[in-house]
Structure formats: structure tokens, C-alpha cells
Amino acid sequence: MKAVATCIAQKWADGSQQQVVSQDTMANDQAMDVYVPGQQPPNGAAAVVRPSYSGKGTWVGFRANGGAGSDATGAISGCL
Fold this sequence. Notes:
Layout: H1 2-16, E1 22-26, E2 31-35, E3 46-51, E4 58-63, H2 70-78
Antiparallel strand pairs: 1-2, 2-3, 3-4
Helix pairs in contact: 1-2
């Protein structure tokens, strides 16, 4: 799970040359929000990275807010 979140953050940071904010939402890095470059907690656009609800693995969603678009979601799919 943490590897997926780190991958997304790295792709966004490299692509934008901007700082990317990650925020733990559960203890022990079990769930994270990775904010799109230029977005800030708590309501900014973010990749929502969680443990899978049905067995092993990682579930990733995208919370849109404002100007985040296909560039952001493309990086997510590249990390799965």
C-alpha cells in the first residue's frame, strides 16, 4: 500500500516539479491520501489509497476537486 502511495507521489512530483503532500489517514501507514500538486489537505484533489476491502492488495480511488484531470489519474494507473 505504501509503495503505491509513494509511486503516485513521485510521479506527480517529477511531472510537475512541485511538492506533493501525503497524509496518513490510518495508523501505521495503512491508508493515505496523496494530494495532487498544488492541492492541500483536507479538501484538495487526492489519490485515496486504502487496503483492499476484499482480501489482499490495495484499493486506489481519486477524489477530484477543481482542476485535477487526466494527468493526475494517468499517474495513478501507472502505479497499480
